[in-house]
């Protein structure tokens, strides 16, 4: 399984451990999108195996940059850009954490 992760709303303590625990519990490889939703749309990403995340889980230096924008992802953007990029990267699940826009995006298949 391959999981994509997008963080929004700024850096928080425990973010690296959050990402590590997702990878560990799902026994999955992770694709991190830097810069939040804009990073997803621009395909600014890095792939990481869960074993590579162990060292990051105990450090305070963020492994991923979060996105902070008031702009909402529109359905047309999702259909035309994000969905295709997720498919091309073979991502099975997208997890979005932080910020207040996830409920609006979570309705998209």
Automatic annotation (TrEMBL):
InterPro entries linked: Phosphofructokinase_dom (IPR000023), PKF_sf (IPR035966)
Keyword Metal-binding: yes
Enzyme Commission no: 2.7.1.11
Domain Phosphofructokinase: start-end pairs: 2-99
Regions that span the bilayer: none
Single GO molecular function: metal ion binding
UniProt cross-references to Gene3D superfamilies, sorted A to Z: 3.40.50.450
Lipid biosynthesis as UniProt keyword: no
Keywords assigned by UniProt, alphabetized: Kinase, Magnesium, Metal-binding, Transferase
Name of the protein described by the UniProt record: 6-phosphofructokinase
Species of provenance: Klebsiella pneumoniae IS43
């Amino acid at each position: 399984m391959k999981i994509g992760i997008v963080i929004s709303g700024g850096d928080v303590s425990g973010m690296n451990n959050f990402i590590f625990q997702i990878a560990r519990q799902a026994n999955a490889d992770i694709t991190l999108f830097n810069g939040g939703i804009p990073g997803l749309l621009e395909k600014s990403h890095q792939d990481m195996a869960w074993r590579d995340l162990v060292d990051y889980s105990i450090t305070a230096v963020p492994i991923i940059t979060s996105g902070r924008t008031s702009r909402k992802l529109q359905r047309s953007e999702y259909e035309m850009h994000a969905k295709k990029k997720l498919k091309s990267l073979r991502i099975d699940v997208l997890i979005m954490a932080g910020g207040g826009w996830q409920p609006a995006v979570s309705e998209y298949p």
